[in-house]
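Late entry, evening session. Most of the bench is empty. Finally got around to the prediction I had been postponing all week. Sequence below, unchanged from the version circulated by S.P.
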Amino acid sequence: QSYSLKFVEAGEFDYYCIYHPTMVGQVVVNQPDTSSSTSEDSINEEPDEEN
């Protein structure tokens, strides 16, 4: 069984297991890097003319 959650804001989010109280963790969500050139909008799917 699995579970997924999309985080929409940055922050630190604690979680724990209801059945195993000693199983705890924290998800750290950073602000997205808007300067990255790997976003879908900037991917060039055309082949290079050099090849």
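Two things to note before I forget:
The mean pLDDT is 79.
The chain has no helices and two strands.
Will write this up properly tomorrow.
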